[in-house]
Amino acid sequence: MSQSKVSQSKESLLASRVGELVANDFRTAHLFSQYGIDFCCGGGITLERAIKRFDADEAALLEALMAFETEGDKQQGLEQLPLPDLLNYIESTHHTFVREKAPLLIEYSEKMVRAHGENHNEIKPLAGWIRALVDDLMPHLMKEERILFPAILGLHNQVEMQNCFGHIGNPINAMQYEHDDALQIFEKIRELTNGLVPPAHACTTWRVCYASLAEFEADLKQHIYLENNILFPKALALTA
Ligand SMILES: [Fe+2]
Ligand SMILES: [Fe+2]
């Protein structure tokens, strides 16, 4: 790649909105999480402004983003998926991920409580927040799968459906509140865990737990971004 092409690409990346970059290639969400950039609620600003606001390493981040571009296996832009495929994608990817990983987070944190809970004050509250997160997320997934997603599919297929919630905006609002709650729990977890950085003396389970939490947080933010910013606006547009 020529130098001019590289710098053009850097300029266009810096001028792109963070939310657009995530919608076009969801692998970038993991990257933005690693660099502390909020792509979920703060996705409306350009990458250049986000780098300044979150004090991220511009050169390293651009290099990583450009590596995605040159890999040539870009994930399909989810924004263009038809609604039924988008619903399937969310369930098969993100809901499955939560169900697979949540029990592991509980297992690791309970192990940490048994091994270190008496000597390290952050461990018991951490296990409590993980349990609260899982207890919130499991019924949330079920409400989406059993109530909201079928209703969205019904709207898409123009099928008259009996429901108990009135306008589709009502369950969408409820789900958005629950998304905010889950993200707030992660803020508490980050405060308790020094931003998910294990202390030097941490054992393997401790390190695996923090790494798994970081992975879980990145997936959850992608998941919520997809629902709040792509799925829900599409569903609401069907009622306009
Ligand atoms: Fe979901
Ligand atoms: Fe959700």
TrEMBL record:
Residues forming coiled coils: none
Subcellular location: Cytoplasm
Domain Hemerythrin-like residues, every copy: 93-235
CC annotations in GO: cytoplasm
Molecular function per GO: metal ion binding
InterPro entries listed in its UniProt record: Hemerythrin-like (IPR012312), RIC_family (IPR019903)
One Pfam family this sequence matches: ScdA_N
Keywords per UniProt: Cytoplasm, Iron, Metal-binding
Predominant cellular place of this UniProt entry's protein: cytoplasm
Highest taxon listed in the record's lineage: Bacteria
Keyword Cytoplasm part of the UniProt annotation: yes
PANTHER family named among the record's database cross-references: IRON-SULFUR CLUSTER REPAIR PROTEIN YTFE (PTHR36438:SF1)
Name recorded for this polypeptide: Hemerythrin-like domain-containing protein
Organism whose genome encodes this protein: Shewanella pealeana (strain ATCC 700345 / ANG-SQ1)
